[in-house]
Amino acid sequence: MDFEGQNDCQRAYLVHIGSKTIGKVQKKLRDLYINDPDCKLNKRTMQLKWADDDTLKSLDGEGLQAAIITHVEPDMDAYVKDKQELVNKVGYENSGGLMKVTVNIPQDVDPDRHIVDFDLGIVSQLEVNSGSIYDNRFGTNLLQADLEKGSILEIVSIEPIGNGEIVVTNEDLGETARLDCKVFVPSAFGHLLPKEKIRARFSHRFLECIVPFAGTRQEVTFTFKFPEPEETVSINDLHDLSELVLIIGEAIENSHKIVLSTKLNDEKVGSGVINIGPGFSPTMKEWAKLVQRAWIVARHFELDKQLALNTRELSQHEGPLLTMAGFLDHQRRDFRLTFWMKESDSLQGKECCIPLVAMTNLGQQIVGLAAGLIGMINLTGEKKDNEVQCEVVTHDVRIESQYVGDDIEEAKAESEKMKERVNEKYSEMHIIQLEM
User: Fold this and answer.
1) What is the pLDDT of residue 139?
2) Nearest-CA neighbor of 331 among 267, 395, 392?
3) Nearest to 300 by CA among 163, 402, 433
4) Are 374 and 396 spatial neighbours (Cβ–Cβ below 8 Å)?
5) What kind and span of H or E run contains 165?
6) Is 341:350 a contact under the CB 8 Å cutoff?
7) Which helix (H) or strand (E) holds 250?
8) Euclidean distance between CA atoms 434 and 436, whole angstroms
9) Is 379:336 a contact under the CB 8 Å cutoff?
10) Cβ contacts of residue 144 below 8 Å, gap of 6+?
11) Contact 180, 207 (CB under 8 A)
């Protein structure tokens, strides 16, 4: 308020404490604490300047209210929130926390690689030899704490920088599998290292892939984290993983080259020859084949979008899944069925029908298929007592009916009916009844 030496106020100003002034206040606070950590703020002052634009329109409450409203409307809550954030953030635009530390690196380990692995969450902790933590504001460091020797550094949480994709290719066969991943890059120490030392981590629920940023055709570390036997996973996620496992398993068996390429937010990051890490074994290929069969059956019954299974359930229903997938897979191999007949009943070269019904649990549902296998009877030449061994090799599989339900007794009754319907349809042929 300006009285100009008179008894009554002549002019009044409202100076808004906005971003520029708040920045000056926080800057002065930082300078004070740097020079005198025990400074008494109640004995410190700071001048404010005002201009004609800050003049109140009238020297009363209405004039003051009108001036305040011009700054806080239309949303008082938003104004308060923005002001609080400004107080907390100003001065940190190009800085933040700063740590000066020396750490113990295990012998025979590349220090840069070890630090990057810690930054990516691969190495869980670092042992401190000495160090200090600073708060860096307005480009000035203020000591926050000293670290004792033997202290442990841990990264509590690491946030991905975006969505990525890994593409695995068996170059000899031209087969490809894709998996969507989250991508992590070194954020704490990465800027301190040369580009050729930096690697990215492509993380999926069931695998980890470490990819160098610089260059192409480098060695890529690839480690599986297979689901536990009781861990329930969506059939689509299991199918994606199984495709990748089959490609890698085939390549390992035949000494083929496996190449991986990666993308981050649709931009190619790099590529390299895969080095398979711990966790892969030949049994995984058999597991992957079983998943493929379950996926074929689930997709046929339109259950693939909601179905979730675990490895134990898959193993329990391996037989029926193999049969049903064989019925449904257009790229299936021929069915080969071997059986014994009395020599007097031998029907060498005769067309026959073998009725088959397969049922199994798939999640909360019971599903079943009935089919007739049409083929020619051939003698293998094997004999025992008064019987001869016969076989039917056929690609002609005719699905006649299917079942979906959730009642066990109903499913058993329907299974018999489905088989009878196949018998009736092909009654003019020779029917071979086999126990499955």
Assistant:
1) 85
2) 395
3) 402
4) yes
5) strand 162-170
6) no
7) helix 235-253
8) 6
9) no
10) 132, 133, 134, 135
11) no
Q: Which of 38-47, 121-130, 166-175, 209-218 has the lowest mean pLDDT?
A: 209-218
Say if residue 75 is exposed, middle or buried (CB neighbours under 10 Å; 0-12, 13-18, 19+): exposed
With a CB cutoff of 8 Å and minimum separation 6, the contacts of 186 are: 115, 116, 119, 120, 193, 198, 199
Tokens of 170: 């068996």
Please report where in the chains the tokens 């020859």 appear, as a residue. 273
In one-letter notation, the amino acid at residue 49 is: K
Q: How many residues does the chain have?
A: 436
How far apart CA 348 and CA 128 sit, in angstroms, is 82
Write down the pTM of the prediction: 0.66
User: What is the reported pLDDT for 280?
Assistant: 66
For every residue of 113-149, DSSP letters joined together read HHHHHHHTTSS-EEEEEEEEEEEEETTEEEEEEEEPT
Return the closest-CA partner of residue 203 out of 158, 247, 171.
Answer: 158
Residue 1 CA to its chain's centroid (Å): 63
What is the C-alpha to C-alpha distance for residues 313 and 361, in angstroms, rounded to an integer? 9
Do residues 394 and 429 touch, judged by C-beta distance below 8 A? no
How far is Cα 171 from Cα 137, in angstroms, rounded to an integer?
Answer: 53
Q: What is each CA distance from 352 to 143, 306, 333, 346, 424, in whole angstroms?
A: 89, 39, 19, 12, 13
Question: Alpha-carbon distance 115 to 54, whole Å?
Answer: 54
Alpha carbon distance 102, 142 (integer Å): 19
